[in-house]
Amino acid sequence: MTAGLLLFGAFGAMLVLGTPIAVALGLAGFLAIWTADLGVMAMPTNVYTGIAKYPLLAIPMFVLAGAIFDRSGVAERLVRFATALVGRGAGMLAVVTIVVAMFLGGISGSGPANAAAVGGVMIGAMGRAGYPPAFSASVVGAAAATDILIPPSIAFIIYSVLVPSATVPALFAAGMIPGVLAGLALIIPVVWMSRRHGFGTHDDGTPLPRVWQSFKEAIWGLMAPVVILGGMRSGWFTPTEAAVMAVIYGLFVGIVIYRSIAWRDIYEMLVEAAEISAVILIVVALASVFAWAANTLGVIDPIVKSILGMGMGQYGVLVLLIAMLVVIGMFLDGVSTFLILLPLLIPIAQHYGWDLVWFGVLLTMKVAIGQFTPPMAVNLMVSCRIAQVPIESTVRWVGWMIVAMFVALGLVIAFPELALWLPRVLGYL
Fold first, then answer.
1. Peptide bond into 189 cis (omega under 30)
2. What is the DSSP string of 102-126?
3. How high is the pLDDT of residue 12?
4. Domains in the chain: boundaries
5. pTM greater than the 0.90 cutoff
6. What is the pLDDT of residues 107-134, one digit of tens each?
7. For residue 133, cis peptide bond before it (omega within 30 degrees of 0)
8. Which of 31, 109, 235, 259 is deepest in the core (most CB within 10 A)?
9. What is the DSSP letter of 264?
C-alpha cells in the first residue's frame, strides 16, 4: 500500500513541479518498484515491451505525413476550395476553418499538429476579415480537437495497443461519424457568435475563389483520405502500411504536383517527425513501467472496486468518468491520458458490459474536449501562440464550443450506433 501511494503521489508531485510527463511516469514507477523491492532490473524489459508493438510503427509515419502535407500547401488550397463553396459573410470563414481542420484530421492524427497547420493559414486570414484574435484562436483550437476522432488517429492507435480486442480498423471506422458530428456541433455556436457580434463582415478586397478552379487545385489534397482509408478498407494495406502510403502520397503531391517541397525540406521534415515521434514513444515506453508497477502492486483493483461500490449505477459512473477525463485532458495529451488511466477504466467498462470500441470513442471525445478547455488546453496553447493572445482571453468564446462538444458526446452516449454502425457495416465488428 505504501508503494502504491508513493507511485501516484510521486507522479502527481512531479507534475506539479513541472517535470516532463515521460520523466514523471518513469521516475514514479522506479521509486515504487525500488521501494517494494520488485526488482529494478524489470524496468528495461518493460521499457522495451512497451514500444515493441507492431501498430506503434504507424505513429512516426502518420506524424511525418502530417508534416509533409503541412509544408506542401495542401491546407492553403483546401481553404480556398472551402471558401469558394461556403462564400463570405458573418461566420463563414470560421466555418471554413472547422471544415479544413476536420479534413486535415483525415491525414495527420495529431490535434496540436492540426492546430499549428490550420492556425498558420487561417488566423491571419480571419484577422483580416474582422475576427478578433482570441475568437480565431478559440475556433482553431476547438476545430483541431476533432483530429483525434477522425481517422487516422494516434489516440486510437494507442488505445488499440492497450485494448487488443478493439482493432485499429474498427476504431478508425467508429470515430468517423462522431468526429463529423463533433465538427458540425462546433459550427452552430461559431456561426451564432459571429453573427451576433458581426465577425467576418469585413471585406478585405480579395476576389472570391472560383469553385471549379479551386477544386482542381485542391483535388490532390482531397484525395489523400480516400487513398489512406480506401486502401485500408479494400484490403490493399494494413493501418501501419497505410501510414507509409500516406507519406509516399504526400511526397508525390508536394514534390511532383505542387512543387512546393524542395529536396532540402525533406531532411527538416524527417527531423521534425523524429522529434515528435520520439516524444510520443518515450511517453509510451516509460508509461509501461508505471502501468506495470501499478498492476504488480495491486493498486488498480481497489480503486476499481471503490468506484463500482459507490452505488451510482452505470450512468452515474459514466458521468464521473466524463468529468474526470475532461479535467485530466486539460493538463495531459490524449496519449498520456490513455496510458495512465486505461488500466483503471477498462475493468469498469467490462463490469458494465460496455462495447470497448464504443467506449474508446467516448474516451477520445472526452480527451478532445479537454484539449481545448482552459487553463492548460494543448490545442488552445498552440493556436493562442500563433494568434499572440493569452489563453485566458479565449474563455468567453471557447465556453460555447465546449458546450456544443458535450452535446455531441451526449448523443454518442445516448445512441451508441452513431459509433458502432459504420464498423459493423464494414465488417470490423
1. no
2. HHHTTT---HHHHHHHHHHHHHHHH
3. 82
4. 1-40, 54-425
5. no
6. 666 677 778 778 877 888 888 888 999 9
7. no
8. 109
9. H
